[in-house]
Specification:
With 46 residues, the chain is mainly alpha-helical. The longest helix is centred in the middle third of the chain and has 29 residues. The relative contact order is 0.08.
Length: 46
Amino acid sequence: MERKPPKTKGTKGDEGREARLKAALKANLARRKAQARARKPAGERG
């Protein structure tokens, strides 16, 4: 079987991908925090 050389990834697309991943992670974290706050009773801290 013939081995193919690995494809080189361009940096142009990586920057956009990084930005999208960062934004998605931030939104996910904010959503999870909001859900956790909603589950806690109003008077409880921690």
